Amino acid sequence: MTSTVPEIHRGLAGVVADTTAISTVIAETNSLTYRGYPVQDLAARCSFEEVAYLLWYGELPDPGELREFRAQERALRPLDRTTAEVLARLPATCHPMDVLRTAVSFIGAEDPREDDGTPAANLAKSLTLLARLPGVVAADHRRRHGLAPIQPDPDLSYAENFFHMCFGAVPDAEVVRCFEISLILYAEHSFNASTFTARVVTSTLSDLYSAVTAAIGALKGPLHGGANEAVMHMLTEIGDPQRAGQWLDEALAAQRKIMGFGHRVYKAGDSRVPIMQEATERLIARAGDPDVTRLAALHAALRHAMISRKGIHPNLDYPAGLAYHLMGFDIPAFTPLFVMSRITGWSAHITEQLAHNALIRPLASYDGPGQRPVPPT
Ligand SMILES: CC(=O)SCCNC(=O)CCNC(=O)[C@H](O)C(C)(C)COP(=O)(O)OP(=O)(O)OC[C@H]1O[C@@H](n2cnc3c(N)ncnc32)[C@H](O)[C@@H]1OP(=O)(O)O
Ligand SMILES: O=C([O-])CC(=O)C(=O)O
Predict the structure, then answer these.
(1) Whole-prediction pTM value?
(2) Ligand nearest to the CA of 307
(3) Separation of 264 CA from ligand 1 center, angstroms?
(4) Res 6: pLDDT
(5) Angle, helices 334-355/317-326, rounded to nearest 10 degrees
(6) Using CB atoms within 10 A of its CB, is residue 142 exposed (0-12), middle (13-18) or buried (19+)?
(7) In this structure, which ligand is nearest to the CA of 220?
(8) Whether CATH 1.10.3720.10 fits 23-221+332-355
(9) Ligand 1 site, residue 317, Cβ cutoff 6 A
């Protein structure tokens, strides 16, 4: 009897798993659109709140809709006492992504709303998470420096308020805008690993908090969102722009993955990198500091070396990691910043998955031992 060997798509590479109307990544033209709008234009003209609204409702808000959306987000910002206490008890040695994952799970456990899974109920939960997660990240950042949390300020935008809660001050507009651009670029990217994780959990008809908790776990890994932290660790390890080429040769010879480079879909450059790189260069110029100039030179030298040696281009995590460092965030807080943005894309996909749900359950080709008897005891 002959058996046909099925074609295996390890890592689901090249597999089209479903349709989506949320975003499209077109590697051939190096383009990315959210609900049809080029991400470059959104990053140039919109606030992060407008982009969140677009992802969730399918259209950009008119002024009245934006006003109402902003008011709702601002009203939901304060963390309740129990959540704050639970988070303060987590060991300071755990990674901030563990804190965030626990926070979402805890906020979900505390939510008294019945889980009817309707789009309206899920959007209400998504807005709660969008509004609360910055407070979680900021309080965690401060406790690691022995500082008390700062209450949110409802007069500030999403991005401004986050700086206020982390550092007790809002930096100049250039820095806030650079941060906001990173949030817009990180918001959504089709069926990436964390979004697909959220869709898998949702496909079992589990709840939104469970899907987001799982997605945070997937984003933490260094092959996905964790790469923005790994980029800064790598730059710190190299230390000197003059060493970039030799360091890279040794790392490649040792089969190391160079963090912040390469992408499953983009093979000739990530559509988001030029915008993020430009914004980061404005931060570098603004700093006017020799250490920053040196770090920027190292960042550029490694990018050139990687492109010339391997033809592999940076992904969004490469400029974003440097930008977050220049904004004053601690390295382990970088991936939580990604979560504060990607919560918008995850929530949109959870709603879309439920709208035409099919349980996600692929097949496997078994290659273990043949059938055999259990030895007698
Ligand atoms: C926001 C985001 O999540 S963007 C991604 C962030 N992740 C990173 O930056 C981590 C570093 N990058 C990588 O590990 C990879 O590029 C991934 C995981 C992102 C994509 O990988 P895949 O699509 O599975 O491609 P794959 O790993 O098969 O790479 C193809 C080839 O390029 C090489 N390659 C790809 N990326 C890198 C890299 N960063 N460093 C060194 N080599 C690389 C691989 O070694 C492989 O070479 P081979 O064909 O000689 O074996
Ligand atoms: O699309 C991917 O595989 C990873 C990525 O860039 C993202 O999630 O933003």
Answers:
(1) 0.97
(2) 1
(3) 7
(4) 86
(5) 130
(6) middle
(7) 1
(8) no
(9) yes
